[in-house]
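anyone seen this seq b4? input:
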Amino acid sequence: QVQLVESGGDLVQPGGSLTLSCTASGFTMRYYAMGWFRRAPGKEREFVSAITRSGNNVYYADSVKGRFGISRDNAKNTVYLQMNSLGPEDTAAYYCGAGHDANSNYATYFYWGQGTQVTVSS
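predicted toks r here
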């Protein structure tokens, strides 16, 4: 059974940091590009970051560039999202997806996790 399970979401104060993890099972993650998206209440799903199969190329939304870092450990079937300098605007449910290409188009990802909630508030 194909599964992506996100973890690491939490309530954090503005300026704080979190690391999200997404672990794959039922398929070999190293054959797929991985992406992180988020959805805030009342807003559309938004691209956050993506990483190629090898991890050699990474991509970020302008809103998180310089604050977030994506990485992967193919031996552990896990992709990470390190988030720094968090602000209230980062409050959202964060989802990881697996697809053939590392890009910002959520429609090209075909495996999805259930999401993990990140809340940034004092």
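The radius of gyration is 13 Å. Residues 48 and 64 are 7 Å apart (CA to CA). kinda curious what u guys think
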